[in-house]
């Protein structure tokens, strides 16, 4: 039976309270070896794609160096790219629920490859600018269906592990991507766009070969019309909006690693290469630390207690980032933040799946995923303004405080989501 036509394995939606209460204390009890083959196929495809994801760190350089754009113009174009990723993700979620997950992933990957080639082959800055915006519109289409596939083929107790595996695989492939970028950076930087487009097409080939197709199942009828109505209109679901709000705060915190951390390192007199070493250390921790998630104490934690722990560890690492001045100190801070991310990874998406009806998971995950687009607007302003007015100590203290707020909010969020009329 095709994946998109298979009966939902998970929760019976009319009882959201049962979903969260009965399964949250079993998250993470499944080992990787017990995950469905479809999950492994998706992990392979995304790792292939991530291995070639070289474009974004060099996109501004390409625009300035190859198309004579000013730095300010390049900044505006990158902002346009970021803004375009928000409707891209929403479109991916809606398309996933209409034509199926595999077909939507293929649309997103092929569209992304075409846009990247458009930037590489553009004959003028105007053509390159149009291609950059088109790249943003295609860039996030594949995210909601790939997440929906994991939700569709896993049991509730498997989802956090499956999402964590996907994140670990992408982190590991990210280390390889950095090495590949370093090898190609000596050539015309437009070859990075070509390499990224090739990885998208290779990922599409893996998806087409290994993932089942089919159209999504029709919406299930429920005894509660209000629940069904809320399910097909994610923006009306207050539970999802609550998760979107907390997810946006987390994304703002997370993005400071790419915004405030490089400026902090250079401000402390460390070479730019230190950032690459720290990113590699963080990615390695995410990959090699996966067995820690199977420790008995962590396995007994429900989603919300696990996220509380993760935010506390993350806060400690971020606070330390603002206080240290040496490579060794930054390495310890990076290790702590990576361990916090490791505990958090997959938990929020598993909760989003729990509050979403089976026939609208793509849309729910897409709405939740817009947190990253919203954060991409807020995070640069927050990080740079804090650095300008208070320096690294104030910056990372504020960011750590946001993590503490998220940790403190988890019990209230749990009560809200468990409320019968949430």
Automatic annotation (TrEMBL):
A Gene Ontology term for the protein's cellular component: plasma membrane
Top-level taxon of the source organism: Bacteria
Entry's transmembrane regions: 37-63, 69-87, 125-142, 163-185, 191-211, 240-263, 275-293, 305-324, 330-353, 365-387, 393-413
Domain Major facilitator superfamily (MFS) profile positions: 38-418
Transport among keywords: yes
Swiss-Prot/TrEMBL keywords: Cell membrane, Membrane, Transmembrane, Transmembrane helix, Transport
Subcellular location: Cell membrane
Membrane topology of this protein: Multi-pass membrane protein
Pfam name, any one: MFS_1
Gene3D superfamilies, per database record: MFS general substrate transporter like domains
InterPro entries: MFS, MFS_dom, MFS_trans_sf, MFS_Transporters
Any one GO MF annotation of this record: transmembrane transporter activity
Family matches, as PANTHER family: MULTIDRUG RESISTANCE PROTEIN MDTH, RESISTANCE PROTEIN MDTM, PUTATIVE-RELATED-RELATED
Protein name per its UniProtKB record: MFS transporter
């Amino acid at each position: 039976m095709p994946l998109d036509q298979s009966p939902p394995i998970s929760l019976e939606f009319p009882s959201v309270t049962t979903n969260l209460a009965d399964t949250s204390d079993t998250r993470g009890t499944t080992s990787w070896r017990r995950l469905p083959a479809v999950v492994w196929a998706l992990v392979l495809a995304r790792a292939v794609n991530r291995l070639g994801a070289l474009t974004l760190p060099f996109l501004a350089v390409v625009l300035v160096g190859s198309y004579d754009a000013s730095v300010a113009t390049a900044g505006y174009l990158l902002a346009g790219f970021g803004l375009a990723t928000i409707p891209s993700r929403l479109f991916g979620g809606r398309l996933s629920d209409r034509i199926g997950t595999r077909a939507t992933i293929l649309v997103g990957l092929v569209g992304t490859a075409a846009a990247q080639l458009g930037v590489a082959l553009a004959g003028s800055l105007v053509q390159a600018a149009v291609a950059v915006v088109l790249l943003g519109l295609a860039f996030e289409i594949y995210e909601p269906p790939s997440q929906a596939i994991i939700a569709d083929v896993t049991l509730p107790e498997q989802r956090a592990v499956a999402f964590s595996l996907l994140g670990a695989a992408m982190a590991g492939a990210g280390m390889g991507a950095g090495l590949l970028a370093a090898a190609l950076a000596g050539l015309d930087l437009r070859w990075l766009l070509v390499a990224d487009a090739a990885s998208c097409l290779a990922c599409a080939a893996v998806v087409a070969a290994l993932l089942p197709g089919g159209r999504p199942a029709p919406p299930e009828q429920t005894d509660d019309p209000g629940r069904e109505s809320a399910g097909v209109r994610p923006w009306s679901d207050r539970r999802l909006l609550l998760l979107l709000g907390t997810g946006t705060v987390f994304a703002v915190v997370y993005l400071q690693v790419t915004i405030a951390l490089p400026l902090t390192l250079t401000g402390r007199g460390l070479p730019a290469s230190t950032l690459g070493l720290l990113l590699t250390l963080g990615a390695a921790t995410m990959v090699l630390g996966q067995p820690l998630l199977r420790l008995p104490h962590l396995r007994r934690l429900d989603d919300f207690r696990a996220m509380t722990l993760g935010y506390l560890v993350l806060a400690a690492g971020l606070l330390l980032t603002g206080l240290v001045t040496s490579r060794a100190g930054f390495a310890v801070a990076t290790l702590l933040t990576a361990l916090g991310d490791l505990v958090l990874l997959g938990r929020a998406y598993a909760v989003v799946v729990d509050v979403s009806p089976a026939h609208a998971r793509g849309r729910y995950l897409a709405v939740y995923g817009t947190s990253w687009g919203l954060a991409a607007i807020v995070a640069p302003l927050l990080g740079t303004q804090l650095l300008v007015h208070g320096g690294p100590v104030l910056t990372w203290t504020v960011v750590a405080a946001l993590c503490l707020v998220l940790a403190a909010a988890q019990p209230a969020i749990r009560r809200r989501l468990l409320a019968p009329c949430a």
